[in-house]
Structures are given as structure tokens and as C-alpha cells.
Amino acid sequence: MPALAAVRGFKDILPHEIGPWTLIEGKARDLARRFGFLEIRPPVLERTELFARGIGESTDIVEKEMYTMDDRGGGRVTLRPEATAGIARAVIEHGILQTRKTARLFFLGPMFRYERPQKGRLRQFHQLDCEIFGDPGPWSDAEVISLLWSFLTELGAQDLTLAVNTLGCPKCRPLFREALVEHLSAGRASLCEDCIRRLERNPMRVLDCKNPGCRSLALSAPRIPDFACPECRAHFAGVLEALSSLGLEPVLDPLLVRGLDYYARTAFEVLAGGLGAQNAVAGGGRYDGLLAALGGPDLPGIGFAAGLERLALLLPERPAAPGPDFWLAPLCPEAVGPLFRLAGFLRGKGLSVLADWEPGSLKSRLKKADKANASKCLVLGADELQGGRVLVRDLKTGEQSLASLADLSPLPAPAGLDAAPAAGPELRGGGA
Ligand code: HAM
Q1: Same domain, yes or no, for 247 and 393?
Q2: N- or C-end of the chain: fewer Cβ atoms within 10 A?
Q3: How far does residue 287's CA lie from ligand 1's centre (Å)?
Q4: Is residue 422 over pLDDT 80?
Q5: What is the 3-state secondary structure (H, E, C) of 26-75?
Q6: Are residues 402 and 276 in the same domain?
Q7: Which atom of ligand 1 is nearest to the CA of 281?
Q8: What separation in Å is there between the alpha carbon of 66 and the centre of ligand 1?
């Protein structure tokens, strides 16, 4: 029978690959604490309508990338392709902004998009998602961006570019849209098939197309910031000033539009060299109309999501998984029982213990202990058993000593294991 493999675009993260993930998740929690974000864990599955209304019917995500299915009880449900809509739903459903003016929430978890898998692009991928609800001011935009920047740089990611743009608001964006459609319609012949469709449904997405014909038309297109109303201009200037006061000088990119429809005003992305085609390691922006569009209060929001697979590719070092405190090595069958009880005692003291319960030669046991990256090896053979002692070998320094095994229950405190001086020439040099 052929062995089954994982679904295409869905990847195991194996024990030897977990190092960067532990680092990344630890740093995410550390920054969330420093910036006052509380953790939320929305469900993986939401009603399809949430994403259609939240992200936008005419976005690539909703049109062709969602894992959608019939719910057995009726209705359509979707594996979340992103976290913002679900978190916004939770904020509304639980009345989180009824008892407080603002809410800062973060989430670490998997997202699902049916995209063509390639380096840095999966069908199940993970994000750190940070959102501030209820705060309209430019300071919160700058705070969110600086959290993201600290997250990436404190982890050691290099060759990063922070790009920002303003996408205007429902007041000024229609003017831009009109001018853009006029410009794109005049150059319609050079647009790709997708963009001809976008021209009617979502013309701003044409600015994001990589096709050379679309790209050159985008470069000569009207610029969103030139159409921004005085309020949007003031907001954007405030964001840039606040960022500058933190030493952050982003690149202004008037073609940056993002792939989700809920954005208004600030939009930003962090691009990383060395990632190839999928070079956006994080993106976000302001979504002041989202809560209202989902049937909630007319309150603003701002946030970002960082792609953790892409970030893991950028990290300079992959720390080795830490080894156990002790490796237990029985050299004869009679030693297995006492060492098994010793393992229970040490684990009860909070120490990590591994063992191979098959008795074997000292040399092969020490080799295994070394391979497991253990700190110390506890060796029990017939001689030690007879003397009621266990040999303690420090695998980092090579030092050895003997500890009493007289009273296994209760056992001496682990620190006491170093107490007795080493003896027995055959054990002292064993395995070296
Ligand atoms: P997004 O730009 O769609 O934004 O995704 C954010 C990040 O997730 C991307 O920059 C990328 O690093 C990662 N990502 C996206 N798709 C994939 C994929 N197929 N494979 C691997 N990584 C991927 C959002 O999701 C918004 N919800 C961000 C946001 C939060 N805006 C406001 N708040």
C-alpha cells in the first residue's frame, strides 16, 4: 500500500526545524507584552460571508483562494485565509469595545489560502497578527508599525524595506478611482486578462500587477496620495512624523495598494531581500470601516500580519534544540529498574531526562548521550550497582564523579549527584 503524503502546500514542521519557530513565537509574545497587546484565539472556521463582507468579494483571496465548504448543518463555511476579519467579528460579538475605548489584540496561528505553492508561499501558513481597535489617531499607526519593525529586527532579519502609502478614505478615494479608471481604460490594450477584469471590479489592484504591460501603465497612473483629502493628508503626515521620531524612515510607495479591500488611509508592507518572488514578510494598514461593514460599531482599526514561514527563512541562525539535563545509561539489565525510578525522581524535580532502556556498552551509551546533546550522563553497571552508586559524567567538561544510589526513594537531591569523587578507571575513561 503506498504511504500517504501531506496535502500539497501543507507542510510538517519537524522537530529539527522547530528552533526558529520557538524563537519567533517567544519574540512575538515578548513584543505583545511590551506594547500592551492581549492574546485572542479565534476559531479556524468562520462563516464564508464574514470574509466576503470583510475582505471584499472582488479580491483574489475571496474570488479564488479560500477553502470553502458546505457546513453539514447548512450554510457555507471557510478556513480563515487571514485573521483580521475573524478578530473583528469577535470584538463585535463579545462587545469588547462596549466596556473599553480601545482594544489591542494579538494572535499567532495558521491561515489557509489556495495559492500556487512555491518558496515562501504555502496553502497553510502562519501569521503573527496584531490589531488595535478603536484608536483613530496616527500615533497608533506608528505604534503598530514600530512593533512590527522591532519584531523583525530584534529577531535578526536583515535587508528589510518598510514601504508605506495612504489609500485615502471613502471621501477622497472615489476621485482617485475615477482618474485611475480613465487612465487604465486609455491603455486597456496593454493590460493582462486579469487586469481587464479588475478594471471594472477592483481597478486599484491593477497597480499591484507584476505583468510588464500593467506595470508600465501603473507607473504612469495617477497617484493616490495626490488625491488625498486634507484629513487623510494630515493623518499620513502624522504617521510619518511619529515614525521619524522613533528613527523609522519608510519608503513612500504610491503604488502600494494591498490585496484586501478593507483598508483606508495608512497601508504598509515590509519587504525582504533574499526571499525571491514572495518578498513581503509582513503587511497591514488601517481599516476604519471594517467593524461597521461587519454590523458592528463605526469605530476604527489598524493592524498588521507577519508571515512566519517567510520570517523563518530570514533568520540568521537556527539554534539547536536544547538537549536533556540527563541521559540515563543502564549497562546491564539489573540497572534498568533503578534508573527508571531515578528518571521519575529527576523529572519530578523539574529536570529533563532521556534514556535508552536497552542495556548496552558504556561506549555506545555515551555516544547516544552526546548525540542527544545531554548535559550529563548517569551510568549504572553491575559494579556501580554493587557499590550502591551511580556514575555521573559531565558531557560538556568530561568530569566524572560518583553519587550514592543507596536510597532511591526518596532519592538525594539532584545537586547532590555531584558529591562523591569519581572512582573506577574503566568508567573514568569510558566512551572517550
Ligand atoms: P496579507 O498581506 O494578506 O495581509 O498577509 C500578511 C503576510 O502573510 C504576508 O506579508 C506574507 O508574509 C504572509 N502570507 C500571505 N500569504 C501567504 C502564503 N500563501 N504563504 C506564506 N505566507 C503568506 C493580511 O493577511 C492582513 N490580515 C494583514 C492585516 C492585519 N491588516 C490589518 N491587520
Answers
A1: no
A2: N
A3: 15
A4: no
A5: HHHHHHHHHCCCEECCCCCEEEHHHHHHHCCCCCHHHHHHCEEEECCCCC
A6: no
A7: 12
A8: 14
CATH number, domain of 331, equals: 3.40.50.800
Looking at the predicted structure, is the pLDDT value of residue 410 above 50? no
pLDDT of residue 328: 96
Same domain, 125 and 233: yes
pLDDT band at 406 (very low <50, low <70, confident <90, very high): low
**Alpha carbons 393 and 326: distance in angstroms, whole number:** 10
Range of the domain at 99: 15-172+228-312
**In the prediction, which pLDDT does 415 show?**
44
Tell me the best of 111, 287, 291 to mutate to test the pocket of ligand 1, counting ligand atoms within 8 Å of each CB and taking the most: 111
State whether 305 and 336 are in the same domain. Answer: no
Q: How far apart are CA 193 and CA 183, in angstroms?
A: 17
How many A from CA of 191 to the centre of ligand 1?
Answer: 26
Q: How far is the centre of ligand 1, averaged over its atoms, from the C-alpha of 245 (Å)? A: 27
Distance 405 CA to ligand 1 centre (A): 56
Number of domains in the chain: 2
How remote is the CA of residue 305 from the centroid of ligand 1, in Å?
Answer: 6
Select from 168, 125, 130, 122 the least CA-distant residue to 149. 130
Residue 427 lies in a domain: no
Give the residue, by CA position, lying nearest to ligand 1 atom 10. 282
d(C-alpha 273, C-alpha 384), whole Å: 58
Q: Is residue 32 assigned to a domain?
A: yes
Q: Same domain, yes or no, for 72 and 141?
A: yes
pLDDT level of residue 110 (50, 70, 90 thresholds): very high
Judge whether residue 429 has pLDDT over 60: no
- Distance from Cα 113 to the centre of ligand 1, integer Å: 10
Atom of ligand 1 nearest to the CA of 260: 3
Spatial distance between the Cα atoms of 317 and 202, rounded to a whole number of angstroms: 42
Say yes or no: 398 and 345 in one domain.
yes
Is 321 a member of any domain?
no
Q: How confident is the model at residue 432 (pLDDT cuts 50, 70, 90)?
A: very low
Same-domain status, 285 and 342: no
Angstrom CA distances, 365 to 148, 295, 343, 374, 429, stand at: 46, 64, 16, 12, 13
Domain end residue (candidates: 286, 312, 338): 312
Ligand 1-lining residues (CB < 6 angstroms): 82-84, 113, 115, 120-122, 125, 127, 129, 131, 259-260, 280-285, 287, 303-305, 307, 309-310
pLDDT digits 0-9 by tens, 294-330:
999 999 999 999 999 999 999 977 666 779 999 999 9
Q: Which residue's CA is the closest to the ligand 1 atom numbered 14?
A: 307
